[in-house]
Amino acid sequence: xxxxxxxxxxxxxxxxxxxxxxxxxxxxxxxxxxxxxxxxxxxxxxxxxxxxxxxxxxxxxxxxxxxxxxxxxxxxxxxxxxxxxxxxxxxxxxxxxxxxxxxxxxxxxxxxxxxxxxxxxxxxxxxxxxxxxxxxxxxxxxxxxxxxxxxxxxxxxxxxxxxxxxxxxxxxxxxxxxxxxxxxxxxxxxxxxxxxxxxxxxxxxxxxxxx
Length: 211
What we know:
Layout: E1 15-17, H1 19-31, E2 36-42, H2 53-60, H3 63-71, H4 74-86, E3 89-97, H5 103-117, E4 121-126, E5 141-145, E6 149-155, E7 161-167, H6 170-186, E8 188-189, H7 190-197
Parallel strand pairs: 2-3, 3-4
Antiparallel strand pairs: 1-7, 2-5, 4-8, 5-6, 6-7
Helix pairs in contact: 2-3, 3-5
């Protein structure tokens, strides 16, 4: 278990953004990063992602189609990797995983393994690693962009995107970046984790009203 504790986030100290405003602000701030890095912590075990045909196929229970649609995006991933290299940009992800895997996380790990093949920096940590920081509930979903901006990404109880809270306090941003970096340092590369823990799994069984 990681001894370092996650910093507190006080919503009143940030700026509440709608989903549309968050997407626009995120895009602009990320595009402006040159010769820098960003860090993302993914904690929830279920999301209702929108705008992903592969995710829609999972929702329908069509596992083969979900994986086929992931394979179709390889050209896009390659182009993104080339652009990131051109501007010296590195995006890191830490995916917290609970066992047994939810259908969503099983699907997402297929997606993230593919992303890692194109150079994206993704590591997996078991939920036990963050237990010290979860006395009052699960960690938030957090993205730190370029060392300057922290977004706490918000979701409904069902896992639907619901905007974000933006923080720009330098000390808070730095402490969260260091926390995610510490998790990344003890994490396992997603490719090796996937090959050992996920590749052999049968297609997930969807429960009524949730996958």
